[in-house]
């Protein structure tokens, strides 16, 4: 009996040692398991069962320990009953068997963990581990935690910062007197002259670019503008562009375009794709809106551009090539960087201080390679065209004299709702007057071309919410085509005029100067800096919008952070569901809600939204969204 008791004590000690060791190992691997949120469901059930079993074993151990330390009840001269010893031995044997099974389960869990965390590239598995002193340690990962698309952009601090730029805006702002001398017909400029024979060796090439600038909220709300005007512009566009393959049109605001797309049939969608594919319709910039460039955070600028580009790629299968920004109140150097990294090769800007425009026009520097101030070479360069005159409307785009240019805005023909403020209305083009009118217009084209370094001239033809009536499409396209036909049929004029898109203009300029699209043409300047603050005339500086409506500006930043947090949580959740094989059961409506949130945030980046320059009711509409 003494040997049996000694055997019982030895077994108890061994059981205690093995049980403690088992608990230690279970705690270690259970910690590893907790690091893997993607464990499959059946493995989770197995591990939970193992945990329950461990609890049962521990309870049994406590019971045995109690039996060992309680005063023994002795019968028959101090001896245990044989039945009690037999029961105890059976329980010990069961405990040993269960511990062996437990070791097998833990080993299986370990193998599963290693399999799930194995890396395809053979890199070591770096999991947290438990140290003997009771602390958890996360081993450092020697691998990079980010992927760099443009590594040179992150090296500006360690390379030579010397720049080979021709125009540094900080210097130019210091040097200019910012006087406001009367320039004559071009009030903010100067008189332009030219030699009529200078185009004899190389004719002037003119691209007239029809466009319609649609603000996603300004005087009216986004929806009001869409139903009153924008949907009619786009419906008319499909019809009128198909009437003549020589016609062209450009569009920028994808927020409006996507809303219209959702309400048209498959035949009209197919027609739009054909117009895009044959070059009659160009989607410029491709952002959800034409964003403000002063108040917007770069996160929101990128986000609205991604939203627009993804929509274009998915629905039309096109990637924008050229940027078009005619209405933001000043231009940041961040935007050309983002456009460059979005694979656009060229861009256009308009609202720049009139003194800067005059200075650049005098030095023929209105077209330049826009470079980041921290870039020591040409890695961030993008070709930029600056419009030279007061506005992007027709009176200020054909040439320096708005009184003459307004006469070629055929929306203002007598009998219409708008007219020319210079009291000289347009005249419809006929065989009797086409020669006279063509020469007057050509004179403006030639004068405008003298402000640039190539013999290719860009002439935008449009304004806010233009082409919403069928009559305007006919008036503009038919009358201009008569002028083009006359110019092109008279070689002595040395001009080729046509409708074009923005990329048509840039492609021709690159071809004429002998460079690949997006590369620096010979003798064109390189510029660094930005174009703030903006003044359109006299001392009318557009700076109040930097701080106006501060509540909405603050709400914009809060919304940005909440959306980003929701996107991260959604990504983690969908990845967890995918690993558990439950992806098909995950509600897709959550992603639709995220998309709506991104689009509403993008809408608020519009240059009349975050700036606070819209009407009160429109601002409230933005806030409700």
UniProtKB/TrEMBL annotation:
Q: What is its EC number?
A: 3.2.1.114
- Please list the coiled coil stretches: none
What cofactor requirement does the entry state?
Zn(2+)
Q: What's the family?
A: Belongs to the glycosyl hydrolase 38 family.
Q: Which GO terms describe its cellular component?
A: Golgi membrane
Q: Which Gene3D superfamilies match?
A: Glycoside hydrolase 38, N terminal domain, Glycoside hydrolase family 38, central domain
The membrane-spanning stretches of this chain are: 45-64
- Top-tier EC class: hydrolase
Q: Does the keyword Transmembrane apply?
A: yes
Report what the protein is called. mannosyl-oligosaccharide 1,3-1,6-alpha-mannosidase
Q: Please provide, alphabetically and separated by semicolons, the GO molecular function terms listed in this UniProt record.
A: mannosyl-oligosaccharide 1,3-1,6-alpha-mannosidase activity; metal ion binding
A Gene Ontology biological process term: mannose metabolic process
Query: Matching SUPFAM superfamilies, A to Z?
Result: Families 57/38 glycoside transferase middle domain, Glycoside hydrolase/deacetylase
Reactions catalysed according to its record: N(4)-{beta-D-GlcNAc-(1->2)-alpha-D-Man-(1->3)-[alpha-D-Man-(1->3)-[alpha-D-Man-(1->6)]-alpha-D-Man-(1->6)]-beta-D-Man-(1->4)-beta-D-GlcNAc-(1->4)-beta-D-GlcNAc}-L-asparaginyl-[protein] + 2 H2O = 2 alpha-D-mannopyranose + an N(4)-{beta-D-GlcNAc-(1->2)-alpha-D-Man-(1->3)-[alpha-D-Man-(1->6)]-beta-D-Man-(1->4)-beta-D-GlcNAc-(1->4)-beta-D-GlcNAc}-L-asparaginyl-[protein]
Question: InterPro entries, alphabetically?
Answer: Glyco_hydro/deAcase_b/a-brl, Glyco_hydro_38_cen, Glyco_hydro_38_cen_sf, Glyco_hydro_38_N, Glyco_hydro_38_N_sf, Glyco_hydro_57/38_cen_sf, Glycosyl_Hydrlase_38
Arranged from A to Z, the UniProt key words for this protein are:
Glycosidase, Hydrolase, Membrane, Metal-binding, Transmembrane, Transmembrane helix, Zinc
- Residues forming the Glycoside hydrolase family 38 central domain are 540-625
- Pfam families (alphabetical): Alpha-mann_mid, Glyco_hydro_38N
Q: What does this protein do?
A: Catalyzes the first committed step in the biosynthesis of complex N-glycans. It controls conversion of high mannose to complex N-glycans; the final hydrolytic step in the N-glycan maturation pathway.
